Amino acid sequence: MTIDEQIASLEEAIAAGVRKIVTQSQGVRTEIEYQSTDQMERALAKLKARKAGGPRTNLVAF
Q1: Which sequence spans correspond to the domains of the chain?
Q2: Contact, 5 vs 44, CB < 8 A?
Q3: Local confidence band at 58 (pLDDT 50, 70, 90 cut-offs)
């Protein structure tokens, strides 16, 4: 699933008032249920920042 598809899915879910998103890409079914609309909006903002080339958070273990 492309970043544009992820953004579109989140925007549609937020507009519809749905907190559970089910997608299928390359035969893999993914199901995500958000706890709140606020959590969805934060995820959407992160995806848009990533698309725009904004800062990303990476966790590194040594």
Answers
A1: 3-51
A2: no
A3: low
Higher pLDDT, 53 or 41: 41
Q: Which helix (H) or strand (E) holds 31?
A: strand 28-33
Tokens read off for 15: 């507009």
- Predicted confidence at residue 28, as pLDDT, reads 92
Q: Nearest CA to 25 among 39, 45, 4?
A: 4
Euclidean distance between CA atoms 45 and 7, whole angstroms: 9
pLDDT at residue 26, as a whole number: 87
Q: For the structural domain made of 3-51, what CATH number should be given?
A: 3.30.1580
Which distant-in-sequence residues (6+ apart) come within 8 Å of 21 by Cβ?
Answer: 9, 10, 13, 31, 32, 33, 34
Quote the pLDDT of residue 1: 82
